[in-house]
Specification:
Layout: H1 11-26, H2 30-39, H3 50-60, H4 66-100, H5 103-109, H6 114-125, H7 128-141, H8 147-160, H9 166-171, H10 178-191, H11 202-214, H12 218-231, H13 237-246, H14 250-267
């Protein structure tokens, strides 16, 4: 049995898990005995000391000892606390950069871990007026003359976007810069599966499907297929199967196959 430490490790939970393993071994629970034999085959289960149960748990997490597991969990928990302490600072920073119109600086500062971004977003939404102005500033960036800014703003809207963003993002699907086109598709499809769910308009889904079939850029075509999978609209499955039937590009085929599976799963 192999495990990974959770994103927010709990030392008390780890200790409780070790005690539970000890009790289960002492009562002859079959799965617990398998775990014991995997890492400490010579020990008597019916008198298993807690230290040995802790050792087995540590080995399951990939550590050589309980002390090393505790140290790693403690360090990871401390890192999470430090990240959480920074969340109010991030929210204030992003509001300030948006008010100042510093979109490049805003986009650079938003390169943080997903859980930090989500926590900051939750905090920002508590201030409705400031949050609406913040999203409006990112929306304005979709019209920036710099392709990089348009790309990054579209990217930001896959986390911060709402229904008002659909039209401006859809307009980017026809621009000359390939990466801006595919990021707009990605952001639109994320709206259809994200926290602020906005159903992907069938007309927009058809445009994304057309891009998957016909766009001159291989990367746009691949990302268009992924966008259809993210939106998981059952109506997209036939066009994706047609794409699979005629395509030789292995990357595009792999992405289209994944997208078909998502659409079929959504259809039940």
């Amino acid at each position: 049995m192999s495990r990974s430490l959770p994103a927010r490790p709990d030392l008390r939970r780890l200790s409780d898990d070790a005690r539970a393993l000890q009790r289960a071994c002492r009562t002859g629970h079959a799965r617990a005995l398998e775990r014991l034999r995997a890492f400490a085959p010579g020990l008597a289960a019916d008198v298993l000391p807690l230290a040995k149960a802790q050792f087995v748990l540590a080995r399951e997490y990939g550590f050589s000892s309980w002390a090393r597991l505790r140290a790693a969990a403690t360090a990871k928990a401390a890192a999470v606390r430090a990240e959480n302490a920074r969340v109010p600072q991030l929210a204030a920073l992003w509001f300030g950069l948006a008010r100042a119109g510093d979109l490049p600086g805003l986009m650079i500062s938003m390169a943080v871990k997903k859980r930090q971004l989500e926590a900051a977003r939750g905090l920002m939404r508590a201030d409705t007026g400031a949050y609406q102005a913040f999203v409006q500033a990112i929306l304005a960036g979709l019209s920036d003359r710099r392709p990089r800014v348009r790309f990054e703003c579209a990217h930001a809207l896959d986390q911060f976007g709402d229904a008002r963003c659909v039209g401006p993002l859809a307009a980017l699907m026809d621009v000359k810069v390939p990466r801006v086109r595919w990021m707009a598709m990605h952001a639109l499809s994320c709206h259809a599966c994200g926290e602020d769910t906005v159903s992907l308009d069938p007309a927009i889904a058809a445009r994304i499907a057309r891009a998957a079939m016909e766009d001159a850029s291989p990367r746009v075509r691949r990302n268009a297929a992924v966008a259809l999978g993210l939106a998981a609209a059952p109506a997209s499955a036939p066009i994706l199967r047609e794409l699979l039937a005629r395509e030789a590009d292995p990357k595009l085929r792999r992405m289209a196959q994944w997208a078909v599976e998502q659409c079929e799963a959504a259809a039940g």
